[in-house]
Amino acid sequence: MTDETLRFYNANAEAYAGDKKSPDPRLFAFLARCKPGGRILELGTGGGVDAAAIIGEGFDLDATDGSAELAAIATRQLGRPVRTMLFEELDAVAAYDGIYACASLTHVARTELADIIAKIHRALVDGGVVWASFKTGDGEATDAFERRYNFLPPEDLMSLWRSAAPWSELSQDQWLGSAYDRKSTEWLAVTAVK
Ligand SMILES: C[S@@+](CC[C@H](N)C(=O)[O-])C[C@H]1O[C@@H](n2cnc3c(N)ncnc32)[C@H](O)[C@@H]1O
After folding, report:
1. How crowded is residue 3: how many other Cβ atoms within 10 Å of its Cβ?
2. Which residue, among 100, 108, 107, 115, has the nearest Cα to 23 in the 3D structure?
3. Looking at the whole model, is its pTM more than 0.70?
4. Which terminus of the chain, N or C, has less C-beta within 10 A?
5. Which residue ranges form the domains of the chain, and what is each CATH number?
6. Is the minimum distance from the CB of 8 to ligand 1 under 6 angstroms?
7. Is the minimum distance from the CB of 39 to ligand 1 under 6 angstroms?
8. pLDDT tens digit string along 37-74?
9. What is the pLDDT of residues 169-182, one digit of tens each?
10. Cα of 65 to ligand 1 centre, how many Å?
């Protein structure tokens, strides 16, 4: 399946990858909660900037992206293979100590998000941690680049995570930031422990 969102990332892969200069500052708090040197899955690695930092911190990274063009760029940047994988293709069971999804699951259709969250839960070991950031809002929509967003209100996003899988801990972090489109953006990151 190649939806309009992945068409954007494939067609603009070089420009998109070149736009991110440094790792997400919240990455390191997530890594501090993961087993040192543990196995981390990244969903939607983009150009591989966060991936390089995860490897640099000594973790065993399985980096993936649904865009074959971005996966190829990240493969070059990291000097190791980045797998082309759609979120819905995740079928691992108890394989990862941590799962990191920076601004990627924000593209999943609302009707499919609970299923992806359940797959993430299944893919984690007991005690494993997931961190996923979302643009929040009040209605599914497409942006000026034709990328689709689920744009959930914070309370709906948290209640979806709560009901999709039996997490032992669930917390949120909200901030005002920006993104590739340079617009002021309300972000919410979920941290959940299996
Ligand atoms: C906003 S970018 C974030 C990229 C990177 N995490 C970062 O912070 O720079 C969203 C990423 O999700 C990927 N993506 C979008 N839809 C996807 C899908 N259905 N399956 C897998 N990856 C997808 C895109 O190719 C893109 O790399």
Report:
1. 14
2. 100
3. yes
4. N
5. 4-19+26-193 (3.40.50.150)
6. no
7. no
8. 999 999 999 999 999 999 999 999 999 999 999 999 99
9. 999 999 999 888 88
10. 6
